[in-house]
Specification:
8 helices; Rossmann fold; single chain; alpha/beta; globular; 5 strands
């Protein structure tokens, strides 16, 4: 059985990727980050999902990206609310965390080398977040090339690192349909950037709006509770 590292935030996308990876027969180690994000409730979701999917190895890394700031997710900046899709895709949003995926993938690369894994799965998506530079295919291709050059295993082993992005060209509704077909329980996931309280999403940030739109277009009902909006 091939080994894989899955970056698991506890969100809708990463949970779907976890289900896809398991369905493909990989032996999975999950990797979660506590990086100073305001929505750190997602870490609890990741823990619950690991237990739900019977994942043996779950690594939770502590990184203080809050000390760098520069993002509404890690700094004292307002999370954008009630934006339409054109606004979301017009430029790189303030919710972009500088170099976050590069940092996360670097940890995953190190863990993969130690565990003898040549497959890293990440739930980046280029359609819903076209403004995020580290969610694009060219970025993933460049990191994969770097990973093959920068590691001992990349130089010495016949098998080469593969970074898998099964959701990168899917819409949110397609992601939800794929996860539902694999039995994902989306009530265990979390997407909100600025939750009202533990487990209660705001329903107004970009992540909440894209999630709700995805469920609607998938002909499904989001199982999360949104106290501040009417559905």
């Amino acid at each position: 059985m091939s080994k894989a590292i899955v970056l698991l935030s506890g969100g809708l996308d990463s949970t779907t990727v976890l289900a896809i990876t398991l369905d493909q027969g990989y032996e999975v180690s999950a990797l979660t980050f506590k990086y100073g994000q305001r929505h750190d409730y997602e870490i609890d979701c990741a823990k619950e999902l690991v237990a739900h999917f019977n994942i043996k190895n779950h690594y939770i890394m502590n990184i203080d990206l809050g000390s760098i700031g520069g993002s509404a997710l890690t700094d004292d900046l307002d999370v954008p609310k009630d934006r339409d899709l054109d606004e979301m895709n017009s430029d790189i949003p303030i919710t972009y965390v500088p170099a976050r995926n590069t940092i996360f993938l670097s940890y995953a690369l190190a863990l993969a080398e130690v565990e003898g894994a040549f497959n890293i799965f990440i739930g980046v998506n280029a359609l819903d977040y076209s403004g995020y530079p580290d969610c694009r295919p060219k970025y993933i291709e460049a990191f994969q090339k770097m990973g093959r050059l920068a590691t001992k295993s990349g130089l010495e082993e016949e098998q080469k690192l593969q970074i898998h992005t099964p959701l990168i060209e899917m819409t949110k509704s397609e992601i939800i349909k794929a996860g539902t077909a694999l039995g994902v329980d989306y009530s265990k996931t979390h997407s909100c950037y600025d939750p009202i309280s533990k487990g209660n999403p705001c329903g107004r940030c970009d992540a909440c709006q894209l999630r709700l739109k995805g469920f609607m277009e998938a002909g499904a009902v989001d199982p999360l509770n949104y106290p501040e909006i009417q559905r």
